[in-house]
Amino acid sequence: MTDQKTHTRRGEEWLANAGLRPTRQRMSLASLLVGDGQDRHVTAESLYDAACRSGEKVSLATVYNTLKAFCDAGLMREITVDGSKSYFDTNMSDHPHFFWEDSATLSDAPAEELEIHRLPTAPQGAEIAKVDVVIRLRRT
């Protein structure tokens, strides 16, 4: 089986497992995200650039909407850095991230090395839904 067929099949399976309709744009973006079997940290802009380089005719707005649909379907999660920049992660396991300030990129940090001993008590009428850990790095 060719690489392209493998990438397409993986994208199809990824969408099918979440019950998402396989539109042309979703299929193309899914293949870029999971086609090679590797996890990705992308921004909407970086995925848009990759789609354009692959010859896909897609708008940046469609990429944003598709990433939101993938997150809503539980295929990806959004990680916000600095309250404004969103990254999208295909690795759905609980794990911390490194944010590389010089390149503005996100990578996985080793979860087995993270220890959180205590969290603050949630305010009355609220519960902690999840904890995102982003460790900012500066190269020396």
Describe the structure.
The chain has 140 residues and is of the alpha+beta class. It contains 4 helices and 6 strands; from the N terminus they run H-H-E-H-H-E-E-E-E-E. The protein has helices spanning 3-17, 24-34, 44-53, 60-72, and strands at 41-42, 77-81, 85-89, 97-100, 105-108, 134-137. The strands form 2 sheets. It has a 3-stranded antiparallel sheet. The chain has a 3-stranded mixed sheet with strand order 5-4-6, with no helix packed on it. A hairpin with a 4-residue loop joins strand 4 and strand 5. Helix 3 crosses helix 4. It is globular. The N and C termini lie far apart (45 Å). The mean pLDDT is 92.
Q: Write out the strand line-up for the largest beta sheet, numbering strands in chain order.
A: 1-3-2
The biggest sheet, with number of strands, parallel, antiparallel or mixed sense and barrel status, is: 3 strands, antiparallel
What does the overall shape look like? Answer: globular
- Average the pLDDT over all residues and give the rounded result: 92
The total count of helices amounts to: 4
Q: Strand fraction band?
A: 15-25%
Judged by helices, strands and strand pairing, the structural class is: alpha+beta
- SSE order: HHEHHEEEEE
